[in-house]
Amino acid sequence: MPSPGFPGSSTELAGVGEALGPRFTFYSRATGTLAANTLESLPFAERGDALRSTLRQAPFWLDVTDVTHSEMQFLSRAFAIHPLTMEDIQMEETREKCELFSNYYFITIRAFDQSGRDGAGPAFMTPVNFYLVIGRDCAITFHSRHLPHTANVLQRIQQLQAFGLQMTPDWVNYALIDDITDSFMPSLRFVELEVDAIDDLVLILKENEQADMLRRIGHARKRVMQLLRLLSTKADVLKTVIKRTGERLAPGSETILYLSDIQDHVITMTQNLSHYEKTLARAHANYLAQISIEITVASNRTNDVVMRMTALASVLVPLNVITGMWGMNVHVPGQDADSLGWFFGILAGMFVTAVTTFYLVRKAAQIL
């Protein structure tokens, strides 16, 4: 992509609103890092350089946050950006991809909102689209909200300049993708520790300590699916980027090796997440199985108590029949006799009836 100056005057940017924080960040070896809230406010004049001549001092990198329609129109004319690329950026296309155009290649990659890394932030893990327009002598990046990746890459450039780094658009592309990929590592480490804890505790927690286990499993599986959704397509995108970049880089360039290393990291993270998901699914099944076993044990205990009560009732009911019958207004055998023989005889009959009933109930329980 050639490095054209912006056609037209600053009136083309009239009406562009101010935003909190620098929405535009410009970097080149000649100017260093420049930042402003609007494109026309970039302080080129303070360094004694005209805008057109500064942009011709390739390579350079322009980062834009929350681009407006008028700014997008202006940049597309200045850098010959294809209308399809404009549409993807303005419509916030979410599918990760790499497309090749005549003077640049266009990459869509998904980062995530990192506000509240402990997971307490309401927007944490919300996907944020990062768009990269990579030409031969300039890189232009777009994203809808402020992310730390731009500042991280700029800091990395400053650190590596002492070792002779020559910033190129392809290197900026690599550094941004690398920083976005590295931003997933703390979340993966958190998920790994949580999965290991759940897998160890799911079968050994006491009954009164299992109240939040199902909630922990649900939250961990949700975090795993969020990460899988963001990482699952990155390996294919990187494969395409490596192919496209290899066609334009000089033989022996290490950028391809670095991109391949990122691809390996993404594949490893995806495989680890798949393993975590399987582990959580097994822990979930084990938890439900343990709950089912505990319910079965409690049910068996209840049934045992009910059977004992039934046996006791079976013994007492015949006795109630006997005492109830003689308690009515009927003639009781031996009521006219002065001795207690009939009384003890009736008691002996009740005892024999109780023993016989108990024997029959116990024998029936053994048969069942």
Automatic annotation (TrEMBL):
Q: Which Pfam families match?
A: CorA
Key word Membrane present in the record?
yes
Q: What is one GO cellular-component annotation here? A: membrane
For biological process, the GO terms are: intracellular magnesium ion homeostasis
Q: Which keywords belong to this entry?
A: Membrane, Transmembrane, Transmembrane helix
List the GO molecular function terms: magnesium ion transmembrane transporter activity
Identify its membrane topology class.
Answer: Multi-pass membrane protein
Give the transmembrane region(s).
309-328, 340-361
Give its localization.
Membrane
Q: Which family does it belong to?
A: Belongs to the CorA metal ion transporter (MIT) (TC 1.A.35) family.
Query: PANTHER family under this entry?
Result: MAGNESIUM AND COBALT TRANSPORT PROTEIN/MITOCHONDRIAL IMPORT INNER MEMBRANE TRANSLOCASE SUBUNIT TIM8, MANGANESE RESISTANCE PROTEIN MNR2
The name under which this protein is listed is Mg2+ transporter protein
Organism name? Caulochytrium protostelioides
